[in-house]
Design brief:
Elements lengths: L2 H15 L5 H19 L4 H17 L1 H18 L3 H7 L3 H15 L8 E6 L5 E8 L2 E6 L4 H12 L3 E5 L5 H17 L7 E3 L5 H8 L7 E5 L2 H10 L12 E5 L5 H13 L8 E7 L5 H10 L3 E4 L1 H4 L6 E2 L13 E7 L2 H11 L4 E5 L3 H10 L4 E4 L18 E3 L7 E3 L5 E8 L7
Parallel strand pairs: 3-4, 3-6, 4-5, 7-8, 7-12, 8-11, 9-10, 9-11, 12-13
Antiparallel strand pairs: 1-2, 2-16, 14-15
């Protein structure tokens, strides 16, 4: 029996065994098992968790043939359903990408363990010693779409931070997710970690998502990772705290002082390196005083990028199409870009304020004062100077794998890795004090 067949049996067996279960009963059963496993995880040492992750990474490498065969099924089904090129790119695994997934799991094992870290400490005049210490959040539910790498990334990050994970992947990647999870759990089992520490929901029934969102007291936090409609549904329906990852309407502003060669290089990379990731530039703002606007848009057009522009942008090249009002608020995730000409920094900032999703926004400039003003005034999770927005990634920030990029303002913001998956508790040590 192949690893892929084993993965399918392991993932489908609970559904067959509990065929009469309602979605609510299924989620409650899995969540209770996850919470029991999390209680064991919380007592594990950094070395024990690290050894489990190394074993999981080795199991992923060993299962390469079967994981890629499972992914071939998903790719064929996606092509038949007419998924866009960008979505198929997100879905596709090959030897290099799978090696990257395994490497990311191993890298998480080498990261500093946030659990038990003392955030701060103080003593009161009455002799009480106070400290705040990082602790796991508990059981984290993660709902995601077509990226199978999220299965391993999320499982690794949750485990390393002492949390259990309950994962619900998208139908597009169902075979890939099952094969990855089966390999990951085999690795954990070799290291003595209960399989229930990371679980993949064994059904694609959308009602299971609704049951996750209302599982108060069982699931401690929900992380949605996908398109705008998914995130909106989660935020609207959840009765469990949500760590939101909204769409990536990322801007790059070419200031009048921008180095031309640098600007041309950054713009091409920010848009076209990988168009289907959330850090891909979706709107380019060009200062009216920037001297090489025509060259920048020609680079993009010649590389096969469709450009939709305002009236002044369209004057740069006859190949530029007119932009609609909706274009400024669209995450294309494809080789499509909206372009506007702006009159100075204030106009650029006004456009970003009106249309940014608060994910990642960047400026290219040689003026240090302008750069600092941009950093101060742009209210996004990630703000960049003279760099491609494609660097908006936990791995590129030295955080290892990431569970998503949070665009809200509470709990965690930007790439969410180990520290973002912890909360804290107060420890108070006394010597017999009573309150008067």
């Amino acid at each position: 029996m192949t690893d892929t067949q084993t993965a399918q049996i392991e993932s489908e067996a609970p559904a067959a065994t509990h065929a009469a279960e309602t979605p609510e009963a299924l989620i409650a059963r899995l969540a209770k098992a996850g919470r029991a496993a999390q209680a064991q995880l919380a007592r594990m040492t950094t070395a024990q968790k690290g050894a489990a992750l190394i074993a999981a990474a080795e199991a992923l490498r060993a299962a390469e043939t079967d994981i890629l065969a499972a992914n071939d099924k998903d790719m064929a089904a996606g092509a038949e359903r007419g998924l866009s090129g960008a979505l198929l790119d997100r879905l596709k695994l090959d030897t290099k990408r799978l090696a990257g997934i395994a490497d990311a799991v191993a890298q998480v094992a080498a990261l500093p363990d946030p659990v038990g870290q003392v955030i701060d400490a103080s003593s009161r005049p009455n002799g009480l010693a106070l400290s705040r210490v990082r602790v796991p959040i508990g059981l984290i539910g993660i709902i995601y779409e077509s990226r199978p790498n999220v299965t391993a990334d999320a499982a690794a990050l949750c485990l390393a931070s002492g949390n259990a994970a309950l994962l619900r992947g998208g139908t597009e990647a169902v075979h890939s997710n099952r094969a990855i999870m089966a390999a990951f759990q085999r690795g954990l089992a070799k290291a003595g970690v209960p399989a229930e520490a990371v679980q993949l929901i064994p059904t694609q029934d959308r009602a299971a998502v609704g049951a996750m969102l209302t599982a108060q007291g069982l699931i401690d936090m929900i992380v949605p990772r996908g398109g705008k409609s998914l995130v909106e549904r989660v935020q609207n329906d959840a009765r469990v705290p949500v760590l939101a990852h909204l769409d990536g309407i990322c801007h790059t502003y070419l200031h009048a002082s921008a180095d031309v060669a640098m600007a041309r290089s950054i713009v091409l990379n920010a848009k076209l390196r990988r168009t289907g990731i959330c850090g891909s530039m979706e709107t380019l703002l060009i200062d009216a005083a920037f001297p090489a606007a025509q060259a920048v848009v020609a680079d993009l057009l010649d590389a096969g990028c469709e450009i939709r522009g305002d009236a002044r942008a369209r004057a740069l090249d006859p190949r530029i199409l007119p932009a609609s009002d909706a274009d400024w608020d669209t995450e294309y995730l494809d080789a499509i870009l909206s372009v506007a000409i702006v009159d100075g920094l204030d106009a650029a900032l006004a456009h970003i304020d009106a249309h940014s999703s608060r994910h990642t926004d960047a400026i290219v400039t040689s003026d240090d004062a302008v750069a600092e003003e941009f950093l101060t005034r742009v209210d996004s999770a990630i703000v960049m100077v003279n760099a491609s927005s494609q660097f908006a990634d936990g791995g590129e920030f030295g955080l290892g794998a990431e569970i998503g990029i949070a665009t809200g303002r509470l709990h965690a913001r930007g790439p969410v890795a180990l520290e973002g998956l912890t909360t804290y508790k107060w420890l108070v040590r006394g010597t017999g004090q009573t309150r008067p």
